[in-house]
Fold these 3 entries.
Entry 1:
Amino acid sequence: MSFKMVFLPPNSQHNLDFVARLQDSVPDANLVAPSDEDAAAAELADADAAFGTMNPRLVAAAPNLRWLQAPAAAPPAGYYFDELIAHPVQVTNFREIYNDHISVHIVAMMLSFVKHLNLYRDHQRDRNWQKLLGDQYNNIFLPESTVVIVGVGGIGTETARLCKALGCNVVGVDARWESPGARDYVDDMRDPSELDEVLSMGDFVVLTIPHTPQTEGMFDASKFALMKDTAIFINIGRGLTTKLDDLNDALRNGDIGGAGLDVYEIEPLPADHPLWDAPNTILTPHIAADEGRHLGERRYEVVSDNMRRFAAGEPLRNVVDKHNWY
């Protein structure tokens, strides 16, 4: 079946090259890449599919739209608005393509905290030969530690696999067992209603959850109060799940032992935010999956496969529950 797909602006030369390659893979499709919103609205009038980010005006201009490919695994806040949720269009995303990149970033943070590489890097900068000795620096032995992974999708499952290889006990918190292999690497899976109970078990608490109406602001002072005072908190899912001021207070008050963040409630993190110099923190600027090796090819494979499926009337990959934003 022939169909029309609109690639929504802005369209860089990189995006145009991507569109040209997709056109070659599904010759019967009519792929268009308008240069601005006015042109996009006109093209959407008879479009069957689209790629990118829409707004209420574009949704209203697309009465026949049946498939929208989101530009990320978990698009930024605001991507799923009321008009898009009410529209019958199916939304798909890029979940699963980042599993290895992001899980390695998580484990790199864990290893850095256990071996204090973040602190030794400061010592190196200051030419300071000082060994970090004493119980306060040796309170987590990785092969005997418990890692609580909140959100056991593809990234959480791959993180669990790597943690098991290091000898960790893995407790998962998720409402579903959908990710392939999760049962092989998670020792104890709990329902989200049990989160408060398991937080006290974790030497590491790792967030890989998406931003949804249910998870926004989930990790606040009340959650940090339930964690061990030696526990390391790592958020690599979405920044709006965590209250940064509460996290800063927890670190400075000694309620938890440290934090590694790649995502933030405010991005970029303001230069004057106190979290920059909070004790025992590792902060990276939302780069865990940025243009890592193979990601371009994986994006192409997902979209081209879904184009073929759409043309054949087959079920699409990575369909999103729009009401829950993932």
Note: The mean pLDDT is 95.
Entry 2:
Amino acid sequence: MNKEIPVFFTIDNSYAPFLAVALNSAVKNASKDRVYHAIVLHEGVSEENCKKLVALGTDNFKIEVIPMKNNFDALDDRMSNRLRCDYFTLTIYFRLFIPAMFPQYDKAIYIDSDVVVSGDIAELFDIDIGENYIGACNDLSIADVPPLVAYTENAVGVKAHEYINSGILLMNLKKLREQKFEEHFLNLLNTYHFDTIAPDQDYINAILNGKIYYLDKRFDAMPNNARPVCSDPVIIHYNLFEKPWCYDGIQYEDEFWRYAEDCGYIDEIKAYKSDYTDEKKKADKECLELLVRRGIEIPGNKITFKKMNESGIKIRL
């Protein structure tokens, strides 16, 4: 089986060391019998960092680094009447444009860069999601926070057990293109400017709910002290503030440091952690508190995904 497995990541320059850990783990756990192509879409990554990331590749695991702007410029030719947001606004939604930007692929994986791939990524790619638009995991990071559960149901309009985390996506690019997903997204973004707490994730949930294949939690195992660890994760996702390069005692931290050791950035990562001051930790706590407050406030807005959907506006594809 020689079919290429495309895996997309997006980063800026500051995140290169952590992506290196993710790539190092993915390469080391890849099958020798498969062909992989990691496509790193970046914003302002230095030439030195680009070279270091590409060097992590192997004969059957190619790593390519592409500036995001190149892809937006190509899209703009046929979407100029719809690209009314500025470029920097759109970069936070970048994964939503992958179907339109890469027509050569009918299926692909998108992964956030705060991960360790502890199994073979081909296991995810080989899952048949049928006519669904994406495969993803239920977002268990919010399941134990009542205000955020209420937010997903009362603002996004999606039941908590159906609300997915967009950090790991198995994407049916062909189906998303056929349904003109990016056009529908841009129309909603430009028309309603929905207030959200997880911008791209909330749009994905609101638009694709009912057309999502729910993956086993092994493919998006998140540190969560309220829940037992996953015994055989394929992808470990250090979501929100649960990052071993910031804090001690994080679930699955040994896996991160195992792949960080020889990723080419171990000194930088250790220095980053040693410089993670109490002030930064306090800012994290305040940011989480703000997230919860916003989750409480937003359902009361006049314009929400749920209210527009109930009024007859087409939200879901």
Note: The radius of gyration is 19 Å.
Entry 3:
Amino acid sequence: MRIAMIGTGYVGLVSGTCFSDFGHDVTCIDKDAGKIEALLDGRIPIFEPGLHALVAKNVKSGQLSFTQQLADAVPQAEAVFIAVGTPSRRGDGHADLSYVYAAAREMAEFLSPGVVVVTKSTVPVGTGDEVERIIREVRPDLEFSVASNPEFLREGAAIQDFKRPDRIVIGCEDAHAEEVLKEIYRPLFLNQSPVVTMSRRGAELTKYAANALLATKITFINEIADLCERVGADVQDVARGVGLDNRIGPKFLHAGPGYGGSCFPKDTLALLKTGQDYDTPLRIVEAVATVNDNRKRSMGRKVINAMGGQVHGKTVAILGLTFKPNTDDMRDSPSLAIVQTLQDAGASIRAYDPEGMDQAAQMMTGVAFCADAYEAMTGADAAVIVTEWDRFRALDFSRMKTLLKQMVLVDLRNIYERHEVERHGFKYVAIGR
């Protein structure tokens, strides 16, 4: 099947590449000349394990191509996916749909009869209706369909998630759109991936509801972790005891410094705004967003307390900057608030992240970025694990003793056992333990 993918960001590039690997003919389109030039040159603008090799493979086979021009691909496409950004709009927190609507307006003149336009971007309820209205305004006589096909990709595991999904959600209003989307995803039927078909508005809301619920689980266990510290329990024991209940499950019950990334912060906020627009307050989601925002700075204060309550003139080594491992994404990362809190208290920061330092350098000031974890710890008064990269799971404590001024390790991801760290003579501070 011939597919045009508008947008070569995280969702568009991963989705387009995986569709091409299924055997479809995919053209990814982006206005950003720099992105297209990089992709044509074999350079991938984002870090995602396995993506570089998969892009190269499908470009070589002729299944995947890149262009700046809608006219190069949209007229031939049987399905056109919109996978552009929907960031939080400044001032009110609503999802900024200007890129989605611009894509709809600009593609309209190139669409062929029978085409299915699919919103892959995360969009609020009713966006598909507006996309359809825009296209009909430009092409009133065109026969076409508009569908919703939300993505549920985890950064760092996106290819696996795309090829072995928990479910495929299709939101459509006519049989033709359903038929086309099922044909696109037919290669996954061999994996028995369930296809859930519903209304377009239902699909749009499903994405937001899923992310809000996952964010709620994270925030819930973080608050339980705070209680564990007060009552003398271990949150990891509690999380395991809770997560073995099949009704709850163990995923997203890992206490930490709060959620970040490109999805949860903006999606919970957008869902809240949708609730307000429809006079349906979402009090639980509202509490989740507030608690998570407050938690990030409280983690900075946790580090300060671990260092004796005062960090003015001291140096802190930050290990990990991205919101999670196996990505270079710094959007709403807890490290941003933690570093700012420490700097506000007078601390100097030395930091290392395997993939995120280029992005971090654009978002942080006054930070010394280092070549590895040990360089970051050289001369520091404490080391703080903020992101659970694998390379931080087997730190050389004997070497750390020679580098750190004070033997303090703050583990905000609970990747070590207390006895393991303390037997080396370190003060160990973790989350909920």
Note: The mean pLDDT is 97.
